[in-house]
What we know:
- This protein has eight helices and 25 strands.
- It is an alpha+beta fold.
- The longest helix has 16 residues, at 227-242.
Amino acid sequence: MTRRVLSAGLTLLGVAALLTVSLGRTSPRQAGHHGIHINSHDIGGVVASAKGPEAGVWVIAETTDLPTRYIKEVVTDDRGRYLIPDLPRANYTVWARGYGLVDSPKVQTEPGQPVDLKPSVAADAKTAARYYPANYWYALLEVPAKTEFPGTDAAGNGISSSVKSQGQWIHLIKTDSCESCHQLGNLYTRTIPAMFDDLDPAQAWLRRLQSGQAGTAMMYGLSQLGAKRATELFGDWTTRIANGELPAEAPPRPQGIERNVVVTQWDWADPKAYLHDEISTDKRNPSLNANGLIYGSPEESRDYLPVLDPVHNTISRVKTLYRDPNTPGQPKPLRSSPVWGDEAIWDSHTTVHNPMFDERGRVWFTARIRPSDNPAFCKEGSSHPSAKLTPVESSGRQLEMYDPATEQISMVDTCFGTHHLLFGEDANDTLWTSSGGVVGW
Length: 441
């Protein structure tokens, strides 16, 4: 077997969140507390353990006093100093987290106050590893050897015969299946829920993948890999971790320009929604909608666009529409889940995907507005020029457009299915979709 490091992507589960990163100067600006000038909108201080000042450590300020949960994070400099700038007026919980440390006690404070934080040095490697990024744990997953490809299905080595190479297998894990939606290697995925404790490791993984409303899709992703071998490998992975195996090395702390980052996060949907993506401007003209509202897409979880005002830290919603009451919704859970049981937490009909600004500040997004059976003008026998050339019997998503100026939504039926959107840089500002459709508006 060959072990490979598989980098884990960020997945936001439960409450949809937005994360922005700005590169700017966060080091001390002039003399003051430990050489840090703290104005009425800042929180600053020094992070030090028993070993002394701690460089490259995250400092987090969090509040629920605002209309939405708000978090801002920075990194300490070479002398353990930090400054969290430009905080809205609120009460904050502040603490420090760094590799090789245990989180500092949380301190309640407000902007304008100096706050020194005292994390503890991790007592051993196991304690330290609890804070490692998910991909360091994910790297413990065994990958089938190159010589095992192409796969020979369940009757052979358990790898799907459609997987021709080790690279393809890793690609499915990282890009086109598992890690597309999950932060593999986080605490939840690297342990087996108690609900499945009575099953052997491979069967426990098979059962956990059947849980919830995404169970059918999860099983499809598993079949692409070859269910037999994949569940054996994932079962072996979580078993070794349960028995005490740790990542081979500690992650480095942020260095250099990495310490000049300010991360701001907002919760801006609801606890049972997830955020697929968001848009803040016209990609062809990034000055459009400066400091304006940000629109998200909760895809299969909700029939609304979550909307964030990042200046005032307020949230709102734009209800998405479908014209046919027979438009399908979300499936029932395939099997019960350790978290939600048999509850169907997703209820979207429109399955909003990929919002995009046009040059006038209107928000376009793919959405399901009717059942998949196409109107007659799309099908064989229609006199429509496009149908004569390429008749299309069905489409899974169509289009909607929200105009912030009028607060109205327009539904646009399409013969072709839509998924991703992109405006062309031509004279007509043509809207293209990933299913090959072209829309003029």
